[in-house]
């Protein structure tokens, strides 16, 4: 089992444990804020399943129908996660609206908060693992799942603060009000996940610093060539696609041109993990004099 699959399965197990704890906290207290927290955890569980499927599909090798691989499956999963986060926020708003006109005291608030606190600590630890490992493995689905869990942590902390304030002041209206504040925060988190995932689906270029790294590598390693131009980049899951035209002197042999390309590809793959590189070699009369200058 790959590291991505191990993390995805781990998310499923953690999601089940957290949902059980938060549902118990709501059952003990009857708090609408804790109910909102539990509702978000049902979405966490669903997104963990989506991430598991996406990671499995993305790991499939390229085939005749998908010659560039299945890497974009992770972006679809991340978009789905964003949509489900938004749905969770809307469900919370509905529950809070039904209670705000008739707020009720929370039963056994301290017991409920202790149970919910255990779930929050578990979520925070696993969310941090998913974000750090997801970025290291260049997995949008795992990183998005981690961000979702960290948003859930913020939710749980806010809920706890609201219940404690209501308990000390007797203003039980704070319970549904905190649920509304939490829902707004979750909505913003969902929109950010969707926005970041759509950039990958729309073949957005790599970040500026990565692009500069690519240009520097080509400039340094293309000795024997004249220039490189028409550089294009995009990313799909963990894979970065790079293609450009390499201009060589007219007298350069095919074998020599191939050696230059091999040198550039080796250096790019060392600088950009999981790079997929396509180089189109052209004779000197095709030079545009506006591309990447080759250093001697």
TrEMBL record:
It is a multi-pass membrane protein. Keywords: Membrane, Transmembrane, Transmembrane helix, Transport. The chain crosses the membrane at residues 41-61, 73-93, 113-131, 151-171. SUPFAM superfamilies: Cation efflux protein cytoplasmic domain-like (SSF160240), Cation efflux protein transmembrane domain-like (SSF161111). Coiled coil: none annotated. Its main location: membrane. Residues 207-284 form the Cation efflux protein cytoplasmic domain. It is found in: Membrane. Residues 11-202 form the Cation efflux protein transmembrane domain. It comes from the Bacteria. The keyword Cytoplasm does not apply. PANTHER family: MITOCHONDRIAL METAL TRANSPORTER 1-RELATED (PTHR43840:SF15). NCBIfam families: CDF. Belongs to the cation diffusion facilitator (CDF) transporter (TC 2.A.4) family. This is Cation diffusion facilitator family transporter. It comes from Mesobacterium hydrothermale. The lineage of its organism: Bacteria, Pseudomonadati, Pseudomonadota, Alphaproteobacteria, Rhodobacterales.
């Amino acid at each position: 089992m790959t590291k991505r699959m191990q993390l995805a399965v781990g998310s499923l197990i953690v999601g089940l444990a957290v949902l059980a704890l938060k549902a118990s906290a709501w059952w003990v207290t009857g708090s609408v804020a804790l109910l909102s927290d539990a509702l978000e955890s049902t979405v966490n569980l669903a997104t963990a399943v989506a991430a598991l499927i996406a990671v499995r599909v993305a790991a499939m090798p390229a085939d005749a129908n998908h010659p560039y691989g299945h890497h974009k499956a992770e972006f679809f999963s991340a978009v789905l996660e964003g949509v489900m986060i938004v749905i969770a926020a809307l469900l919370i708003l509905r529950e809070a609206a039904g209670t705000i006109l008739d707020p009720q005291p929370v039963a056994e608030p301290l017991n409920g908060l202790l149970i919910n606190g255990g779930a929050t600590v578990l979520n925070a630890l696993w969310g941090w693992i998913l974000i750090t490992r997801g970025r290291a493995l260049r997995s949008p689905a795992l990183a998005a799942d981690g961000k979702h869990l960290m948003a859930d942590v913020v939710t749980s902390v806010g809920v706890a603060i609201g219940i404690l304030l209501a308990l000390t002041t007797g203003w039980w209206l704070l319970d549904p009000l905190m649920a509304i504040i939490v829902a707004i925060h979750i909505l913003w988190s969902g929109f950010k996940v969707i926005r970041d995932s759509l950039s990958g689906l729309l073949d957005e270029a790599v970040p500026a610093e990565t692009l500069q790294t690519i240009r520097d590598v080509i400039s340094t390693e293309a000795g024997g060539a004249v220039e490189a131009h028409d550089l294009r980049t995009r990313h799909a899951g963990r894979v970065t696609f790079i293609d450009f035209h390499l201009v060589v002197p007219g007298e350069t042999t095919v074998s020599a041109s191939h050696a230059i390309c091999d040198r550039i590809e080796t250096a790019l793959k060392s600088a950009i993990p999981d790079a997929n590189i396509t180089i189109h070699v052209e004779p000197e009369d095709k030079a545009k004099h506006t591309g990447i200058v080759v250093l001697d």
